[in-house]
Q: What sequence folds into this?
């Protein structure tokens, strides 16, 4: 009874976004999600870059809907990389911890090219910038569109009216790249 007849869905997350929830409909096998069986599905999506996690689960419908999931392997056709997400747990309201959805991180960090370098850059950036976010600090951003300032005050107030002359002398630029 390790297989399921419930509807199974997956969301795949990468450095460039996610797929959203996708139901796994057509396996290369005639009957999907049987005990001991490997099912193969094609999921169309924009290229997500390096993958880092999935969320997989089922809707809990049908008799004997509990499911024991060993692992998920995603093959990226663009980079030819395989991403492995180990589970080796039940997705069953009556087994294990009762969850029918699991969030699984990528198993091997080496499949994420540059992951260590990216984490090091993030840590260095935060170390250099965290002083701006200390208690009691007023943050001020210059809005190029309105040519005014937006202030975030320590008490939680936000002044977004765009005062062109602000009593705080420094202007900090914050760039967001998507």
A:
């Amino acid at each position: 009874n390790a297989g399921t007849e419930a509807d199974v869905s997956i969301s795949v997350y990468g450095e460039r976004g996610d797929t959203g929830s996708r139901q796994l409909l057509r396996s290369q096998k005639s009957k999907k999600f049987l005990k001991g069986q490997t099912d193969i599905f094609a999921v169309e999506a924009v290229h997500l870059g390096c993958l880092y996690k999935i969320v997989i689960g089922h809707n809990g419908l049908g008799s004997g809907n509990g499911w024991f999931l060993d692992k998920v392997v995603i093959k990226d056709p663009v980079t030819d990389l395989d991403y492995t997400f180990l589970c080796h747990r039940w997705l069953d309201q009556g087994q294990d911890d009762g969850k029918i959805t699991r969030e699984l991180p990528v198993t091997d960090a080496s499949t994420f090219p540059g992951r260590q370098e990216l984490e090091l850059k993030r840590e260095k950036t935060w170390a250099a910038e965290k002083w701006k976010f200390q208690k009691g600090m007023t943050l001020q951003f210059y809005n190029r569109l309105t040519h005014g300032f937006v202030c975030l005050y320590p008490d939680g107030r936000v002044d977004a009216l765009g005062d062109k002359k602000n009593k705080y002398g420094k202007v900090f630029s914050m760039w967001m790249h998507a």
